[in-house]
Amino acid sequence: MLMIGAATKGAGTDGLYETEAVRQIAFDIYPSAYTHFIADAHQIPLASGSVDGVCIQAVLEHVIDPEQVVSEISRVLKPGGLVYAETPFMQQVHEGAYDFTRFTELGHRWLFRNFETISRGALGGPGLSFYWAAKYFLRGLTRSRLLSDVLSLPFALAALMDGMIGEDHKIDGSNGAYFLGRLTGTSIPLSRIIDEYRGAQR
């Protein structure tokens, strides 16, 4: 399993690191206790068809050319290999100048159009997006990250209410999108992508 941008452990990846059945190879643009090498995801220094799976969490918003990175993921995967990606949608700028792009759930699906869907959908819903917006609003008012983090805590309750919201409405106001897919070598036609929309505005 190739872990991209994995200088720190991604949320929910503990199982991958703990199981002996999965061998992890991790890289990022800086070293850490988890990385095996340093590299740019636009040019992954691995042979074509050399990995069984790729995990890329909260990385694609920080690269200049997400299409190129996904192309590299496709290149290094074996035929039928798996990819798991998480990418933000309704999130404010983080990592300062190293934050470039956002994707709707449908845009995320198009980004991985050369993959067959196993599972896809929203990460968090409008409640989590509201919490993020409140935090950054208060940060702008107070000019203090610490103070805004404290003052925005009551708004975190909105994120807990996402469990009451249907998946279609979550998709339209989601904090991010996830995609789990299998490399097929065939692409979704542009004429079909609209049919892939799963939000509430159908």
Estimate percent helicity: 25-40%
Report the end-to-end length measured between terminal Cα atoms. Answer: 37 Å
How is the largest sheet built, in terms of strand order? Answer: 3-2-1-4-5-7-6
C-alpha-based Rg, rounded = 18 Å
Quick one: CATH superfamily of the largest domain?
Answer: Vaccinia Virus protein VP39
Q: Roughly what is the average pLDDT, rounded to an integer?
A: 96
Q: Give me the CATH fold name of the largest domain.
A: Rossmann fold
* Residue windows where pLDDT falls under 50 for at least 5 positions: none
- Work out the helix count: 7
By CATH, the architecture of the largest domain is named 3-Layer(aba) Sandwich
Notable traits:
Rossmann fold; 202 residues; 7 strands; seven-stranded mixed β-sheet; 2 domains
List strands and helices in order, with pairings:
Elements: E1 2-4, H1 14-18, E2 25-28, E3 37-38, E4 51-57, H2 66-76, E5 77-88, H3 105-111, E6 115-123, H4 126-142, H5 145-151, H6 156-160, H7 167-172, E7 176-183
Parallel strand pairs: 1-2, 1-4, 2-3, 4-5
Antiparallel strand pairs: 5-7, 6-7
Helix pairs in contact: 4-5
Briefly characterize the structure.
The chain has seven helices and seven strands, in the order βαβββαβαβααααβ. By secondary structure, it is α/β, with parallel strands linked by helices.
Explain what you see.
There is one protein chain. The chain is an alpha/beta fold. The chain folds into two domains: 137 residues, Vaccinia Virus protein VP39 (Rossmann fold, 3-Layer(aba) Sandwich); 39 residues, no CATH class. Helices cover 29% and strands 22% of the residues. The chain has seven helices and seven strands. The chain has a seven-stranded mixed β-sheet. α2 links the parallel β4 and β5. α4 crosses α5. It is globular. The protein starts with a strand and ends in a 19-residue tail after the last strand. The relative contact order is 0.15. The mean pLDDT is 96.
